[in-house]
Every structure is written in structure tokens, then in C-alpha cells.
Specification:
The chain has about 475 residues and is an alpha/beta fold. About 35% of the residues lie in helices and about 20% in strands. The mean pLDDT is about 90.
Length: about 475
């Protein structure tokens, strides 16, 4: 291992000196990597890059604290000179014991191919992680071994010593052995040369081109640890639901260290507001009532979440087509760490006869396939009203809402898109969908169906084809 380390240190020192007067053909590839990482890493996060080179990638990520490590003293010297606003340390990826602090994002960009022991390097990360830290890794595909060797022989690319030509399965396995869990992966960079925009943004997402990509990206998180009795806030958007209010109070279970109910009444034509007002003093549980000032379910949910005090935020539709008795299953899924965003799914178990009209069912199936493809994580039901997340994640979603804009009247896609953009682990939780016993649906299948189509197109531009 020591001989391996010394040989590579000398090699990358020489490459650093060579790059003072030579650039090669890799600049288009690295520009594309920067674009991808700018999408994956939100601004103002604490970012560590392992194998940072001269710090070019790290310098583009607008980190609140940016730290780069590299075992090449020549690389680190140049990084410090070019980017004095960032921290750089000469350090071996196999021993990070002297590095201080924790990070929101840890990056291995084209680094694992060159390591002596990838699993050992991954194990070094635990003391630098929080439960929400994301590990982002990109590495070369085996298919490009010969083309890269030819480019190096022609002095068009930096020469490499013998590499670890790893598959995605290899990386997933070593992450698992080191105590991490893969969330999702993508294939990137089909044409690492000029005029590659069409190939690198669009064609690489499609079969059969994705199998020819130069780089594989893997996003992982630390293996989850169960939280100890987090508190819960349940937000209940209620419009024309007076007949269901009493049952919501009676049937909603207590969860965690404390459970609060927050009703947001939205311009009802019946006496929903008055009914909630009368029920609150009749029950010992912590409850509050807001009168919605805006319109739409999304606005109601945001108003409720702004008032919420719990560690975990839940949405319960007042129509009770998802029974309140199912909420503990959502609680267990998120508190145990199985997922960070728990999405209710109505399309697994048989439904009661009038629970969902046929065209609505077909539409939901279509949108589940579309959004699973767009987000790179399985989303079997996009419009189930019951969604559960950590309050701190919601606050980060709200802070970055400008990225997607504000045209979702349901709120479901705002939350799903936001969780995916933050690289959170999304988990589907099947429930039995019940028929309404009071009132009628507020959803128009045609008007809102067209709006959903617009959202698919918008999400494709903002999430898939970046």
C-alpha cells in the first residue's frame, strides 16, 4: 500500500506541474461534471471533496464551508493559490482522522478509480457525516477503458496509472460494507468533447445510449439510525369537510413524544370552520385551527407546516380516504430511518368501489411511471394526499422552492420534487384507499390532468435533462 501511495503521489505531482502549461481535451468533460454537481449540491452547504485536485469543481459549488483534500502536494499548493476562500489539506483518503467537522455533502469525483482500498476510504467518512449527509461518487465506465487509453497515448488526456475499473454493483457493495446505503444512480456524459450538449443532456438519459455513458454517478447516505420518539405535527387541510371533523379527532392516534393536530380550513361553503372550533375544546389533545388566506391545498399545507412544532410533519386529507389509523405506519417508516420522505400509495391494494374513478386510476398509473423515470426513485402514486417528512427537510425544500417555481396547487409535486432535489430517500408506503363518506372531491380530472402534464414537462427540464 505504501509503494502504491508513493507512486501515485509522484504521478499526480507531475500531472499538476504539467497542467501549468498543458490542458488536453478534458476541459469539456470537466465542465459537464461541474454542471451536474451544481445541480446535485444546493448552495450554502458544507462540502468536502476527496481527491480535489486543484479545486476547480469545489470552487463552483457555492459552499458555506468548502474543504478539499488531495495526497498530491503540488495539487494542494495550486488549489490554495487559486481558491484562497476554500480550505485545502494534503491528506490521504485512507486516513481522515485529523480532519475536523461534519459535512452535508462529501464528493469523490473520479477518485475511487485510483484508490488502493475503496472500502477503507468510505469507512473514513462516518465521523464526518450527519444523518443527512449525502455521499456523491462519480467514476469511469469500463467501456471507456480503451478510448481513454488512446486519448492518453495521443497526449490528449492526462495519463493514468493502473485503475480500479469498477461497476456500479461494486460501488454499491463497498458502500454497503462500509455502512452506507445507495439512494440512486445516474449515467452521465455520452460525448466528452465539443458540441456535446444534445448527447450529454438528452440522449444519455435514453436507452440504448445510457449504457454507453462515460461516467456513473452514485448518491448514498449513511445507514439510518432510529430516532428516539420524535414528535409529530399532523396538518389537515379541510374544505367542505364538516361531516368528517369529529371522526378525525376521535380516530387519529397519538405518536412519538407528542402529537399535535393543525387544521387549515380553506374557504368552505359548509360549517367546517365552526365544527372544528367546537370540537377542539372537547378533546384533550393539542390542536389548533387556521383560516386559510390563500387558495389551494398546497397553500393550506404550507400554512400548517409554518405553524407546526413537531419533528415530523404529516399531511392527512380531511376526507379520510386514507384512514388516520394508518398514520403510525408512516411514523415507524420515517422514525426508524427506512426513508426520509414517506409517500402514501393507493394503487397496490384493491380499493373500495367508489374510492377512485377509472380514468383517475389510469391517470395515476401513468404519472407514477413518468415521475419514477424523472426522479430516478420509484414513485408509485404521485397524488396520494398522505406524505410524511422531517420538518428540517421541509424547511430546506421551502428555502429552495424558487428552483421549481410555485405553480402546483396540490402541493404533492412541490414536496416530491423538493425531496428528490435534496437527494432524500423516498419510500412508498402502500395503504388501502377508502371511499368518501362525506362531501365530494375537489379535483377536476381534466383541468388538473392537463396541469399534471405541464408538471411532467417542467420536471423533465428541471430534474432529468439538466
Amino acid at each position: 500500500m505504501e509503494m502504491y501511495y508513493q507512486a501515485r503521489q509522484a504521478h499526480w505531482d507531475a500531472i499538476a506541474c504539467k497542467r501549468d502549461h498543458w490542458r488536453g481535451m478534458g476541459k469539456w468533460y470537466h465542465r459537464r461534471l461541474i454542471q451536474i454537481y451544481q445541480f446535485l449540491v444546493s448552495p450554502n452547504q458544507r462540502v468536502l471533496e476527496v481527491g480535489c485536485g486543484t479545486g476547480e469543481l469545489l470552487s463552483h459549488l457555492k459552499a458555506s464551508r468548502g474543504v478539499g483534500i488531495d495526497f498530491s502536494s503540488e495539487m494542494v499548493e495550486r488549489a490554495r493559490a487559486r481558491h484562497p476562500e476554500l480550505e485545502f489539506h494534503q491528506m490521504d483518503a485512507h486516513d481522515l482522522s485529523t480532519l475536523e467537522g461534519t459535512f452535508d455533502v462529501i464528493i469523490f469525483s473520479d477518485t475511487v478509480n485510483d484508490l488502493w482500498d475503496v472500502q477503507l476510504a468510505f469507512k473514513q467518512l462516518h465521523r464526518l457525516c450527519t444523518p443527512h449527509t449525502r455521499i456523491i461518487i462519480n467514476f469511469y465506465s469500463q467501456l471507456w477503458q480503451i478510448p481513454l487509453a488512446i486519448a492518453q497515448g495521443l497526449n490528449l488526456a492526462a495519463p493514468l496509472l493502473s485503475q480500479n475499473w469498477l461497476t456500479q454493483e461494486d460501488i454499491d457493495n463497498m458502500l454497503r460494507l462500509a455502512g452506507f446505503e445507495t439512494i440512486r444512480s445516474t449515467k452521465e456524459v455520452l460525448w466528452p468533447l465539443p458540441l456535446g450538449r444534445l448527447a450529454n443532456r438528452y440522449l444519455v438519459r435514453l436507452w440504448p445510449f445510457r449504457g454507453l455513458a462515460l461516467s456513473t454517478f452514485v448518491i448514498a447516505r449513511p445507514e439510518p439510525q432510529p430516532a428516539e420518539k420524535p414528535s409529530v405535527s399532523i396538518v389537515v387541510p379541510a374544505r367542505n369537510e364538516a361531516g368528517n371533523i369529529k371522526s378525525i379527532f376521535e380516530r387519529t392516534p397519538e405518536m412519538g413524544s407528542a402529537t399535535e393536530l393543525i387544521f387549515v380550513e380553506g374557504h368552505s361553503k359548509d360549517d367546517t370552520y365552526e365544527t372544528i372550533e367546537k370540537e377542539i375544546p372537547l378533546h384533550s389533545r393539542t390542536s389548533s385551527l387556521l383560516r386559510q388566506t390563500g387558495i389551494g391545498k398546497a397553500d393550506a399545507v404550507r400554512a400548517g407546516f409554518a405553524r407546526a412544532k413537531g419533528d415530523i410533519l404529516m399531511i392527512l386529507d380531511a376526507d379520510m380516504t386514507v384512514p388516520p389509523e394508518d398514520l403510525p405506519r408512516f411514523y415507524e417508516a420515517i422514525a426508524s430511518g427506512k426513508g426520509e420522505f414517506i409517500n402514501g400509495v393507493r394503487l397496490v391494494y384493491p380499493m373500495e368501489k367508489e374510492a377512485m374513478r377509472t380514468l383517475n386510476f389510469i391517470g395515476n398509473k401513468f404519472f407514477s411511471l413518468a415521475f419514477s423515470w424523472l426522479l430516478g426513485q420509484p414513485i408509485k402514486d404521485t397524488l396520494c394526499g398522505t406524505k410524511v417528512m422531517w420538518r428540517e427537510d421541509y424547511e430546506e425544500i421551502a428555502a429552495n422552492r424558487v428552483y421549481f417555481g410555485d405553480f402546483d396547487p396540490f402541493g404533492d409535486f412541490d414536496l416530491i420534487f423538493g425531496a428528490a432535489k435534496l437527494n432524500r430517500k423516498i419510500v412508498d408506503l402502500p395503504i388501502r384507499y377508502r371511499e368518501r363518506t362525506y362531501g365530494s372531491t375537489n379535483i377536476s380530472r381534466w383541468k388538473h390532468g392537463l396541469l399534471l402534464m405541464r408538471m411532467v414537462a417542467f420536471a423533465a427540464r428541471r430534474i432529468k435533462f439538466v
